[in-house]
Structure formats: structure tokens, C-alpha cells
Amino acid sequence: MTSTNSTRLTVLATGGTIAGIAGSAIAKDYRAGEIGIDDYLEKVGGLGLGAELSGRQIANIDSADMGPGVWNPLHAAIAEAMADDGCRGIIVTHGTDTLEETAFLLDLTLAADKPVVVVGAMRPADAVGYDGLRNFANAVRVASDPDAAGRGVLVVMGDRVFAARDVRKVRTRGTEAFRGFPRESIGLVTPASLEWFGAPWRQGRAAAFRWTTDLPEVVIVYAHAGLDAASVRRQIGDATRGIVVAGLGEGNMPEAVRTALVEQARNGVAVVRASRTDEGLVDREPEDRDNGFIAARALNPQKARVLLQLLLADGISDPAAIQQKFDRR
Ligand code: SIN
What we know:
Layout: E1 7-15, H1 37-45, E2 51-61, H2 68-83, E3 89-93, H3 99-109, E4 116-119, H4 132-143, E5 154-157, E6 160-163, E7 167-169, E8 178-180, E9 187-190, E10 193-196, E11 217-222, H5 229-235, E12 240-247, H6 255-266, E13 270-275, H7 286-291, E14 293-295, H8 301-313, H9 319-327
Parallel strand pairs: 1-2, 1-3, 3-4, 4-5, 11-12, 12-13, 13-14
Antiparallel strand pairs: 5-6, 6-9, 7-8, 9-10
Helix pairs in contact: 3-8, 5-6
This protein binds succinic acid (SIN).
Succinic acid binds near residues 16, 63, 95, 96 and 120.
């Protein structure tokens, strides 16, 4: 435990490059999720961060393996820390590859009473120019700020603060790998300063969805030139309750695929049109109503999948009711 005078924060570690080791300061290859939380907190102990950090290891994995098996204990640990009167805020360390999905899932299923900050790094801990220490120091700054409460789950990367709903990984390398869409960052942070841009956008502090350990199967169909209906059908099984199309442009798809998906929608499978394009809205088209389709609006396919899973788990399967939830910002 890193001790000081003041703010007590809970740090929940899940692995990723922030806890990664290369074995050399200049190596390209490394192993994510190698450093344990106790060693990590010892490492940051010398930084004088002005917070008392108490750590817990939830997992130590490459976030490519993130899913319900880790989400369940992570969610429970956050709920416990939220209920602890002595805890001011929560930091989750996470691999950057699926960080946006975890952050959005938590955002939709947690109350916003205390700051919850998800943070990662693009370079392993023994690399020259390791960004994890600065990102972590920034996360401490954000999680300690009373104004961070009420904003929902936040992501801190590259001196910026993002809302979980907006954040997306847009680069495979470099420390400026995250962006926000449709809002860019909602704050600028350094270990010594924090600037918020505007009021919280989140409506209310209550969790939008109950937590469930049983998320229904939702597949993502990636549209491309030449995609045919047969290969789409091969992705869909008996257990599939929802399909998100990573569509062309504004959620478009080849005609044969559209016909196959209309058939799925008529059989009660929820079909969401998102875009494989990095940024841009997918608006509702007049035919969506007849087709039984839902437009993902500003959510990218992987986030649309998270929202759809929670809606279906809550028993909401009517396309119009699902659309209303996608429309809500
Ligand atoms: C991971 O997502 O666990 C590996 C990549 C990273 O953290 O940047």
C-alpha cells in the first residue's frame, strides 16, 4: 500500500501492457500482464502522488482474453469499493486492445457516484519512454477529483480524459493511440493539473443496466466487398440473439447480405447497423423500420455489441425499443 495523508483510491489490476515486460528497454516484443499489482504500487510509490493506493489483482492478462470471466470479478470489486465509505475513487488498469469495451460495459452497469478511471499504456513497463507511469499518475489525479464523479466511467490515456462511451483505440502504436467520438476528450490532465471541458453529459447517476453474468450471444459481421449471404449465415448459430454489422460507410451492406439479415430480424434476432469506418454516425434509414433493423448512431461495432448484449439480457428485444436506447446520448 502506498501511503500518504489523504485520498484513498482502490486500484484494480487486470494486466495489459501497462503491466507488461519486454526484458530490454528497446525490444519490440514483450509480454503483457507480467507485473503484479503489489510490485506496481511499489514502483509508483516513489512518485509522491498524494493518494493512498490500495491494490487488488483481478487478473493479469493480455486484454485480448478479456471477457465475462474477468468482467464478473472486476464489476464485483468495483461495486465493493463504491460501497466502501473510505474509498474516494477507483482505478482499473487494463490492456489497451479491449479497454474501450470494458470501460463502456462498466459505464452502462455502474452508478456514477464515485470516479471510476480505466487506464493503460502503449509501451511495456521496462521500455524506454514507458507511458504507463504518467498515465497512471494522471489517473490518480482524475480519480481523486470530486468533479470526476457523475461523469460515468472515464478513460485516461495520453494526457487526456475520455468518456467511456466516446473513447476508441485508433492507432496500433504510439502514445496518442486513443480518440473520442463524437466528443473528443472531455478533459486534459497532467499529474499536477486537471481541466474539465464542460459539464458532465451523463444523465443521472444510477446505473442504466443491472449487472448480469449471463450475456447473450451477439456476433459482429464485418462487411466487405464480395461478402456473401452464405458466409454471414455461417457466423450465426442457434444461440445467436443479436447481430451487429460493421457496415460499409454509413452501415451499408451487399444486397444479398441485407436480405439474409432481414430474414434473421423476422426470426427475432436483433440486427444493428454500425460502420466499419472509424468515425461517423449511422443514422436511421426509412427502410430500417420495414427491415426490423436498428441504427448504431455514434457507437462503433464493438460498443454497439456491448449495448445490445445488455439490452437483450434485460429482455428488451423489440427493434423500436432497442433503437430508443441507441438514440439516447
Ligand atoms: C493488451 O491489450 O493487453 C495488450 C496491448 C496493450 O495493452 O496495449
